[in-house]
Amino acid sequence: KVCFCDTNGELGTKTLSELQSKYGEGNAMFQTCDVSLQQPMENLFKKVKETFGCLDIVCNNAGIGGEVYPLWEKTIDVNLKGTTRGTLLALEHMRTDKGGKGGVIINISSAAGLNVNPLSPVYSATKAGIIALTRSLAMNSEVKSAGVRLNVVCPAFVDTDLIKEINDDNCLDVQKASKFIEMIGVVSKEVVVDCFMELVRDVNQNGAVVKCSKMDGTQYTSIEVKPVT
Ligand SMILES: NC(=O)C1=CN([C@@H]2O[C@H](COP(=O)(O)OP(=O)(O)OC[C@H]3O[C@@H](n4cnc5c(N)ncnc54)[C@H](O)[C@@H]3O)[C@@H](O)[C@H]2O)C=CC1
Ligand SMILES: CC/C=C\C[C@H](O)[C@H](O)/C=C/C=C/C=C\C=C\C(=O)C/C=C\CCC(=O)O
What we know:
By secondary structure, the protein is α/β, with parallel strands linked by helices. It folds into 2 domains: 1-32, no CATH class; 44-220, NAD(P)-binding Rossmann-like Domain (Rossmann fold, 3-Layer(aba) Sandwich), CATH 3.40.50.720.
């Protein structure tokens, strides 16, 4: 069973029909919802719990690019605040100490958050924030005891609309970006899905940061962690 949300109602409804005809009407739900808004997101999580009984897997995936005002602020609202909101709501519904059944949260960051990207600094900062948020919660002893794992996927370039829409609003130098993307290469959506599924299925993965790139393949990063006592 799956529920997904998007601000694009038309695309969401089309995808919902496809999922329902493949997996059955009662097994897929779509809600138009903006991840940057608290109340609609709270309502959505409640609705999923009422409809499906519990939440086992949550993916915070919504993301945009924007480097000039007011788009840079929206980029922080959607990418960093939206992912934080979705993560905290997911935790609330999944934690065994709050009546949940445990589960796994997968957040979608970017290689731009692992590395730096001088052509999209605001985007890059939001994606670095997502990595820090996810790893920090994954290492929190109370979250661990409550049966929730958190992992993060950092794709380099993926064949989606996001990289087809590079312009002066979301990039500081479109020509340089195009050359950079050509150099790194672009992976298919399936590569990211495989990585996502591995992090869902492997119960030993908690706090994992995985980069998927055409140039380097799929790599688990190793960042030294000094345990907080
Ligand atoms: N395409 C790429 O090269 C890469 C993408 N990513 C990340 O992957 C994730 C998915 O992006 P793509 O599928 O590539 O882009 P996309 O542009 O095809 O899809 C993003 C989706 O998010 C939705 N969305 C935007 N703002 C929203 C909001 N406020 N609330 C709810 N939904 C909203 C859009 O309507 C769209 O359907 C994003 O977080 C992106 O930053 C990360 C690295 C590389
Ligand atoms: C170069 C892109 C510039 C602008 C793009 C816009 O901001 C756009 O809206 C979205 C960008 C999405 C970027 C996705 C991935 C970015 C990856 C990197 O910047 C770094 C990739 C590889 C670095 C080499 C490595 O670490 O392996």
